[in-house]
Amino acid sequence: MSTPAPTPPPTPTPTPTLLDWTNRRIDYLRISVTDRCNERCTYCMPAELPDWQEKDEILTYEEILRIVRVTVALGFRKYRLTGGEPLVRRDLAWLIEQIGMIEGVESLGLSTNGTLLAPLASRLRAAGVDSVNISLDTLDADTYARFTRGRWHECVAGIDAAVTAGFPRVKLNAVLMRGMNDHEIPALVRFAHERGALIRFIELMPITTTQVLTPESFLSAQEAKALLERETTLERLETKLGHGPAVYYRTAEGATVGFIGAMTDLHFCESCNKVRLTADGKLRPCLGNHLEFDLKGALREASVAESPVAGGDRRLHEIFRHALGLKPLEHDFRGQYTPGRHMTAIGG
After folding, report:
1. 348, part of any domain
2. What is the number of structural domains in the chain?
3. What b/e readout covers 42-73, taking b as 16+ CB neighbours within 10 angstroms?
4. How many CA atoms, within 13 angstroms, populate the side-chain half-sphere of residue 9?
5. Which site among 47, 48, 112, 325 is 20 to 30 Å from 345 CA-CA?
6. Residue 295 in contact with residue 68, Cβ under 8 Å?
């Protein structure tokens, strides 16, 4: 009896690649699940109480899952849930569990102000969140309350719970503001390092109002780096830590620090790999540009009889490809940019 020939291994399915018109690979979708927030950060939300979107204007979880399936078929692999404050939306852990079960999703992150995180951290980790970004601009409780109208100790409790829950990566985000937290940069680095987290310093951008960005309030990433170098040495890391645009350094003490210089880095947009989905279903190719495309309308107008394409909707495929053909080469923040929506309505 002849020995049967060995069965060849299956040919791996090629990973689809979605490129914009400049050949940037787009594989990262930031999904806002709500425009509501329990804080009022001065750089994120106008002083007056905004008009929240009505419930029926916000994407349902089923609609979000449909969009994720479509984008996976297009080549997206990285996802992050944002808000507003995403943890104010009920049953978010269920949505995370469902996204995590979609074949092709390789990374699932969460951006939060941390104040509601402590009782949920373990469940969110078990549901599949592998990285959590937490906003912390200051170590002073009074300053925190003044700039966010929130409670500092609740944010810190959320940070500590995230570390305890064992997320593979915990990042703290601090928006640079001259006269508010410029003197706290080394202390913020130490605070993060003591908890095994890394910290990123982010330049202030005119996202919600133009008034927030003034010569008196703006602090560049380069100046922040120089302030830190008065106390320690910084060694640039060539490897990327995550999927965003931060440039990372290692301090002499072993802390990891990132700088995001959207306003001063003229090459900031060259490797952009992301688009945003707003809570009300608009696809936004660039944070610093008003261009938007209506996915919610396509979802709700499509008939059941339409032919599916690779587990998604043909019309959604068309919108994504069209949007990527118009994704701006760079953001408009350095020009005479006038915000059209506040940050919580766009998604962090």
Report:
1. no
2. 1
3. bbbbbeeebebbeeeebbebeebbbbbbbbbb
4. 3
5. 325
6. no
pLDDT digits (tens, 9 = 90+) for 275-319: 999 999 999 998 878 789 999 999 888 644 455 444 348 889 999
Residue 5 forms part of a structural domain = no
Instruction: Classify residue 220: in a domain, yes or no.
Output: yes
Task: Give the distance from CA 268 to its chain's centroid.
Answer: 16
How far is Cα 99 from Cα 313, in angstroms, rounded to an integer? 17
Give yes or no for residue 68 having a pLDDT over 80: yes
Q: What is the CATH number of the domain that holds 255?
A: 3.20.20.70
Helix, strand, or coil (residue 335): coil
Q: Annotate 30-67 with DSSP letters as a single string.
A: EEE--S--S---TTTS-SSPP-PPPGGGSPPHHHHHHH
8 Å CB contact between 137 and 174: yes
**Higher-pLDDT residue of 255, 335:** 255
Across 303-324, b (16+ Cβ under 10 Å) vs e yields: eeeeeeeeebbebbbebbeebb
Q: Which is nearest to 41 in space by CA: 176, 133, 144?
A: 144
| CA 231/CA 229 separation, integer angstroms | 5
Measure the N-to-C terminal CA separation of the chain; round to a whole number of Å: 66
Is there a cis peptide before residue 104, judged by omega within 30 degrees of 0? no
